[in-house]
Specification:
383 residues, alpha/beta, TIM Barrel, 9-stranded mixed β-sheet, 11 helices, 27% helix, disordered N terminus, binds pyridoxal-5'-phosphate, pyridoxal phosphate, Ala_racemase, Ala_racemase_C, isomerase
């Protein structure tokens, strides 16, 4: 759907405030003493739109952009981002030559990954960050296999096909800053760096911290931090430490216009399975978005909505394209604007409120918003 077909809020839209993104990037930078900042824009910038967010982040001083998968990194280059980009999730057979030719920093967590990367080199050497699994058991070499990874990387570095530009890992429990797991991972990381140095490696950028660690664990900052969710103004700690207390501003507001308003009598059942029945005569509003747009079906009978300044609730099951809000006795009409979530500063629900209603985390609420919801950017700054 091209933007010109959706000139303004007709059915639904997600308004993304790029001034909020720039503010959040600057706020995160202010937390750092000497470390560089990588803004993580994977998964279409957590649903906010990768290219506009990456541009805003660079404007606010992001030194690096982080992408999970190769398509994302290549799309950033194609959009004209010429700065450092790190991409950490590839599978056998992916077009690494294209990544290397585009100067994208890659990750390797096993000797075979070094071999694949080296095989993709044509002219310039590949820039590689070695990943140590410090305890999360996702990617990376476990400590027992770390020396083998180092040897493979060193060999290719000697051949001139690879340059080791970083050593990195990821924290499993940074959102619980007091968890002993953080200290254990930090120790394993430091030991891995020592081992690498004992092999004569200059580790380059050492990096470990996501948003939670950037905000709460300064000892994990090393040379580079990789915040994602905080860039979007959402707290990695949920309600335990709301974003406003961290000085962050939520960037996304999800709005829709009511497709239908009707008065129903007491006893009227609502939506599939009739899981909600009006206890008294009620005014219902039809919101034209559903789980096909990324609204979580688990928030059926509970998702919060702001309508005409009041906090109201989704009743009945959330369907693929629509859901029903109980407007109680409010005056309302088809075409009225409702807000599903936003920064919360105008009394509207937040992504955290939707996360609570669905039994999930704010990350999932924004990231799952689908392509059927047009993104409208405000406060864009031209380069
Ligand atoms: C490797 C890596 N680094 C950084 C991040 C950013 O994490 P967060 O959004 O919690 O800041 C992620 C996201 O999960 C990740 O997978």
């Amino acid at each position: 759907m091209s933007e010109s077909l959706v000139p303004s809020l007709l059915r639904a839209e997600a308004v993304v405030d790029l001034a909020a993104v720039r503010h959040n990037v600057a706020t995160l930078r202010a937390r750092l003493t000497s470390a560089e900042l990588m803004t993580v824009v994977k998964a279409d910038a957590y649903g906010h739109g990768m290219v506009p967010v990456a541009r805003a982040a660079r404007q606010a001083g992001a030194d690096w952009i982080g992408a999970a998968v190769l398509e994302e990194a290549l799309q950033l280059r194609a959009a004209g981002d010429n700065g450092p980009i790190f991409c950490w999730l590839t599978t056998p057979g992916e077009p690494l030559a294209q990544a290397i030719a585009n100067d994208i920093d890659l990750s390797a967590g096993a000797p075979w990954e070094i071999d694949e990367i080296a095989a993709g080199v044509t002219e310039r050497p590949a820039r590689v960050h070695l990943k140590i699994d410090t305890g999360m058991s996702r990617g990376g070499a476990v400590p027992e296999e770390w020396p083998a990874l180092i040897k493979a990387a060193l060999e290719e570095q000697k051949s001139g096909r690879v340059v080791i530009t970083g050593i990195w890992s990821h924290l499993a429990s940074a959102d619980e800053p007091k968890s002993p797991a953080n200290e254990a991972q930090l120790e394993t990381f430091t030991a891995a760096v020592d081992v690498a140095e004992s092999f004569g490696i200059d580790p380059g950028f050492k990096h470990l911290a996501n948003s939670a660690a950037t905000l709460a664990l300064p000892e994990t900052h090393f040379d580079l931090v990789r915040p994602g969710i905080a860039t979007y103004g959402l707290s990695p700690f949920g309600h335990a430490l709301p974003s406003a207390e961290l000085g962050l501003r939520p960037a996304m507001t999800l709005k829709a216009r009511l497709a239908m308003v009707k008065r129903v009598p007491a006893g009227a059942g609502v939506s599939y399975g009739l899981t909600w029945t009006a206890p008294r005569p009620s005014t219902l509003g039809l919101i034209p978005i559903g789980y096909g747009d990324g609204l979580p079906r688990h928030a059926s009978n509970g998702g919060p909505v702001q309508a005409r300044g009041h906090r109201r609730t989704v009743v009945g099951r959330i369907c693929m394209d629509q859901c029903v809000v109980n407007l109680e006795d409010d005056e309302a009409a088809a075409g009225d604007e409702v807000v599903l979530f936003g920064p919360g500063t105008g009394g509207e629900p937040t992504a955290d409120d939707w996360a609570d209603a669905a039994g999930t985390i704010n990350y999932e609420i924004v990231t799952r918003l689908g392509p059927r919801i047009p993104r409208r950017y405000v406060n864009e700054e031209l380069d």
